[in-house]
Design brief:
The chain is 30% helix and 24% strand. By secondary structure, the chain is α+β, with helices and mostly antiparallel strands. Helix 1 packs antiparallel against helix 3 and helix 2 packs across helix 3. The strands form four sheets. A six-stranded antiparallel barrel has the order 1-4-3-2-5-6. Strands 10, 12, 13 and 15 form a four-stranded mixed beta sheet that branches. It has four domains: 61 residues; 80 residues, Elongation Factor Tu (Ef-tu), domain 3 (Beta Barrel); 83 residues, GMP Synthetase, Chain A, domain 3 (2-Layer Sandwich); 107 residues, no CATH class.
């Protein structure tokens, strides 16, 4: 019996279980009917025993990483020398103009707010001389990852006529959930981060909150060279700002190979981001005439979007066959399988990817690392 089965067994020991067990141990020549003296005597004890069984079941579940939740899982993480990743704050680039469209300089510490019923507040963390500035959302989490557009000054500035967020430079991430933390704790037992090996670099970048995923290419340009290909927290290509930030933390440019960053001495680390591969998808399907065609088509697009998100989640997974390197293939059969689960799709052919009837294997080598992005989706309804 494993711990989970034991916990299930304890949970099954409810009030009725304990009451019947106690009454079964009372001699049959004694009145055991509801309302009798013996019944009323053992009923409270049965209730307490049921509560204790439930508490024991919870204790068992919270003891092991596989089943622990919340703060109990946090305690297990501390025992493994790590902790739950905290939520980070979105960093953006904004521009500022006067009435004539000329750049206006702002000061570090100035505050701005988005235009919404529940505004997002930003603070200037770096002011540039060209009328632009880098700002950070005051609220942690992904709430500010998608806002682009006008912001209003909270700090007075008489010269300012227009302020606008023009770029999300570093997307934020929410606090790490239980499932992700649990997977990280369980996976940590399969490799040891030591002395600049691949696992060590993965461990380094995982602790940089703005990095969503990393591929490591050792000796990519000769002995002592390491290439890190990173994604942001949205699992999309990292901005130049993020690439520079990671480079400075791992192996500072002005003192490369000297060990002043996280990288070991004599390791020359190159940090870059991915090359996107846009995949256009054509679906030839027979749609049920009893359903609204536009609704089905939207569901197909939603399924494809989720499928490509799942692909990007597996982008940094080391090849399980060889134990090194990376591999990722867009299988048309998997896309078809997901589409056929949509209500209203009567039948469908294998999808056409980028105009060809074949799967797409992404390129991962010392020069190129590709990331799949969903492009144009064309749905041909054969029922029309």
């Amino acid at each position: 019996m494993n711990p989970n089965e034991l916990a299930d067994e304890l949970e099954a020991q409810n009030y009725d279980y304990w009451l019947n067990l106690m009454l079964d141990n009372v001699p049959n020549d004694i009145d055991k009917r509801e309302g009798s003296i013996i019944y009323d005597a053992v009923a409270p004890a049965a209730m307490v025993s049921a509560q204790q069984s439930l508490s024991l079941a919870n204790i068992i579940r919270e003891t092991y990483i596989k089943t622990a939740q919340g703060e109990f899982l946090d305690y297990r993480a501390v025992e493994h020398g790590t902790s739950r990743y905290a939520a980070t704050s979105t960093e953006v680039k904004a521009k500022f103009n006067d009435d004539d469209g000329n750049p206006v300089n702002v000061e570090v510490g100035d505050r701005f707010a988005s235009i919404a019923e529940s505004p997002i507040f930003y603070t200037v963390i770096k002011a540039n001389d060209d009328g632009t500035a880098e700002m950070q959302a005051e609220e942690s989490g992904t709430i500010a990852n998608s806002y682009l557009g006008q912001v209003l000054p909270v700090t007075p500035n008489d010269n300012l006529a227009w302020a606008e967020i023009i770029e999300i430079t570093i997307p934020a991430r929410d606090e790490e959930n239980d499932d992700h933390l649990r997977a990280r704790l369980l996976n940590s037992n399969s490799w040891v981060a030591y002395g600049g090996n691949v696992a060590d670099y993965l461990d380094m970048t995982s602790k940089i909150h703005d990095v969503g995923a990393t591929q490591v290419y050792p000796t990519w340009d000769g002995p002592g060279t390491v290439k890190l290909v990173i994604l942001n927290n949205d699992l999309m290509p990292a901005s130049s700002t993020l690439v520079k930030k990671v480079k400075e933390e791992i192996d500072p440019e002005e003192s490369t190979t000297q060990g002043y960053g996280l990288a070991p001495i004599d390791h020359q680390v190159t940090v870059t981001t991915v090359e996107t591969l846009t995949v256009n998808v054509q679906i030839n399907a027979l749609l049920d005439a009893q359903h609204v065609t536009s609704n089905i088509e939207q569901q197909i697009k939603n399924v494809l979007s989720k499928f490509f998100t799942e692909l990007r989640q597996n982008w940094a997974t080391i090849n399980p066959t060889t134990g090194r390197g990376y591999t990722l293939t867009i299988f048309r059969s998997r896309i078809l399988s997901k589409i056929m689960q949509i209500e209203g799709v009567a039948n469908a052919d294998l999808p056409i990817l980028n105009g060809e009837n074949k799967d797409i294997s992404l390129i991962f080598d010392n020069k190129v690392s590709q990331l799949p992005i969903l492009g144009e989706v064309t749905i041909i309804n054969e029922n029309r």
